[in-house]
Design goal:
single chain, 9 helices, 2 domains, five-stranded mixed β-sheet
Length: 280
């Protein structure tokens, strides 16, 4: 009997030691077990979420812990979501869980919000609105900015094109139009050259120049080589010219409503595991 008891303790005690402990019921919208928020920051978030619930009945909760203690993040969030009964009977609840030492966080949505806040959107909010602040240990700003975006899209229809990243497209067009000044220089040398002896060669080079201007970057290199070639074979008079190209690259909401400190969550708690996970 003693050996069996020792056997059970040996194999099951680590499970109890590593199990994540969280309150059976939250005392407020924000539960900061890692003590990373100041009292004023926590109060500000609680007030914002209380006002939001009064306006929409949607419930957003925040859970902050030092570590996952080896647990799987989405499963733990699902357990918290269920036990806290996040959301109303429409299951319109959401949980933001942050695990500081693991540098991981998750947005977990209830069934009622999965349409308004799809996984693609929550992932975008995590990576673009929250992660940059978390990297600098500015957890309050990251959570606050994330909440602002979640509140906005819970009230406004989400369109996938809203998340389109135009930066790569802008870079492409900047490189593309950088070829235009080079083409202008090539045409300048052609027009300056009055010789008719090498008209065939000039025509061929002009065709190549027009093709090069349509090819970003590589075309620009081709135009530069063409300018050097034209100078070497003296197709036009000597001229000093200069070309320059330049390129430049160029939500928060507040509320003053106060919330009560003792509530038992809502009547929801149903989630299909919707949401997204990220790290920093």
């Amino acid at each position: 009997m003693v050996y069996k008891l020792a056997y059970i303790i040996f194999f099951f005690l680590p499970l109890f030691l590593t199990a994540q402990s969280f309150p059976e019921k939250p005392a407020n919208y924000v539960t900061d077990n890692a003590d990373i928020l100041t009292a004023s920051e926590e109060s500000s978030l609680n007030n914002k979420l209380a006002t939001f619930e009064k306006q929409t009945t949607n419930q957003f909760f925040i859970y902050i812990a030092p570590s996952l203690n080896g647990q799987e993040m989405s499963a733990l969030c699902q357990e918290i979501f269920y036990k806290w009964k996040i959301g109303t009977k429409n299951n319109n609840g959401l949980l933001i869980a942050v695990f500081v030492n693991d540098q991981k966080f998750r947005i977990h949505t209830g069934y009622g919000l999965e349409g308004a806040l799809p996984d693609l959107l929550t992932k975008h909010i995590q990576d673009n609105e929250m992660r940059p602040y978390f990297k600098n240990n500015n957890y309050y700003s990251g959570i606050d900015k994330g909440i602002d975006k979640l509140i906005y899209y819970s009230k406004n229809e989400f369109k996938p094109e809203d998340l389109k990243d135009y930066s790569e497209e802008i870079k492409f067009w900047l490189i593309y139009f950088a070829n235009v000044p080079l083409l202008a220089l090539v045409l300048y040398f052609f027009l300056r050259n009055k010789s008719k002896n090498e008209s065939t060669k000039k025509t061929s080079l002009l065709v190549v120049a027009c093709i090069c201007v349509l090819i970003p970057f590589i075309g620009g290199v081709g135009l530069l080589m063409m300018l050097v070639f034209m100078k070497e074979i003296r197709m036009g008079p000597r001229a000093n010219g200069s070309g320059s190209g330049s390129s430049s690259t160029s939500s928060s909401s507040s509320s003053s409503s106060s919330s009560g400190s003792g509530f038992s969550g809502g009547g929801g708690g149903s989630s299909g595991g919707g949401g997204s996970s990220s790290d920093w």
